[in-house]
Amino acid sequence: MTALPAQPVVYEVNTRVWLKETGRRTGRPTGLADVPKDAWDEITPPGVDAVWLMGVWERSERGRAIALRDPALRTAFAEALPGVTEADIAGSPYCIRRYEADPALGGPAGLAAARAELDSRGVGLLLDYVPNHVAPDHPWVTEHPEYFVRGDADDARREPDAFLDTGPAVLARGRDPLFPPWPDVVQLNAFDPALREASADALTAIGRFCDGVRCDMAMLLLNDVFARTWGSRAGPPPETEFWPQVLASVRGRHPGMLFAAEAYWDLEWELQQQGFDFCYDKRLYDRVLHEDAGSVRAHLGAGEEYQRRLVRFLENHDEPRVAGVLPPAAQRAAATLVATLPGATLWHEGQFTGRRTHLPVFLDRRPDEPADDDLRAFYEEITARVGRSGMRTGRWRLLDCEGWPDNDSGRALIASAWTGPAGRFLTVVNLSAHAAQARVRLPWDDLGPYAVELTDLLTGHRYRRSDTELTHGGLYVALPPWGTHLFSLTSGAD
Questions:
Q1: Does residue 340 surpass a pLDDT of 90?
Q2: What's the rounded Cα separation, in Å, for the pair 155 and 149?
Q3: Sequence-separated (6 or more) residues with CB below 8 Å from residue 289
């Protein structure tokens, strides 16, 4: 097992798409055991601590057949991939038939080879776990119908989109309470004691192949959420929550295993308290991409310990490509912010090269798009330099940016500092399309009586400022639209 740092940088890869493209380059079919070294190099640039191989488990042929018959999905497939054929439609990676590596990817031996390759590079492996539902042809459907939310023949007749008649039993189709049921999956009953034990066993088995898991839609398993979603069909809520019981069982057998929760609805804190190491920070994503710096600053005012257990991202397989949402300069500013915040950082394969097509996860081929080499150089540089600096081993603090009576442009600035064994670091980001000026109040009162040198980690530019200016007036910054500073600070006191 690869020991991951306290705040890892994770690189998400759509496994089937990546393997197909690797095979096209090498001219031969490629499974996980056949990936050449240079392809592994591309997804493990310096500064990346773990790779999330999304979509390695055996997909459901029955679920794929349902997707092929769905007109809305077929329209989405054609929009994302002009000329799409049925051969390009692999089915959903979250419609899982079995938690075994798909034979199309090389099976368990291929997955073991992938982990060994990553481990040799000091890079961890993350895989998916879907606690809420399974495919209609999962073995549990026939072997353990008691694991599922049940209906009856009248339900299946009255609501065929919400219930599946398997013959021996009528099972509810999986759902999020805010949306219609998903047609290709059946709903597990989080209140069933036997299902909880089986879930812990499934996660324990997954733990033999990886260093951590990303748990899909983890908040749906919370007792109050599950009770509101399913009511009396689920039975009475147990005294214990699902996640503390399951995670404690798994950690008893895999003590170092990392658990990250896909989480929404402001339930991140609750899931952290129930045992998750990290939870998605969807609020930050929304605020960075769609709101202003004031809302971002308010969000970052939460306690540091809470923030250290969030996953920061600008895109993932569920979200639009950030290159299609933000102009290049704004994307760089947002990425600088995300890369230097406490918590886990999530980058998405294709984000570094500026891909704009949001690919449905059912597809295992994507359209060709020209690579933005300048953007790739930026992402690789900031990922490497932040990692090499060691800044995120220290303590983090949000800083005040003070304007003056006739200039409040500084409200567009987000400034923060790291202090620790690796030194002192300052990030200032202009999250606006306008120039901004302010004085940044630094958190260090032991800089003087020396001149202080500020070195920009991305450009190499050096600036010298007096301790008097920094201690009493604050650091004056003037940034162009979407401009950034990423400084290390040294002085005679260091």
A1: yes
A2: 12
A3: 314, 322, 325, 326, 334
Residues 56, 1: Cα–Cα separation, whole Å: 19
pTM to 2 decimals? 0.96
Q: What is the pLDDT of residues 118-161, one digit of tens each?
A: 999 999 999 999 999 999 999 999 999 999 999 999 999 999 99
* Mean pLDDT of the region 417-443: 96
CA angle 398, 403, 405 (to 5 degrees): 150
Give residue 427's pLDDT.
98
Tokens of 173: 């189709």
Answer yes or no: are the C-beta atoms of 287 and 310 closer than 8 Å: no
pLDDT on residue 492: 61
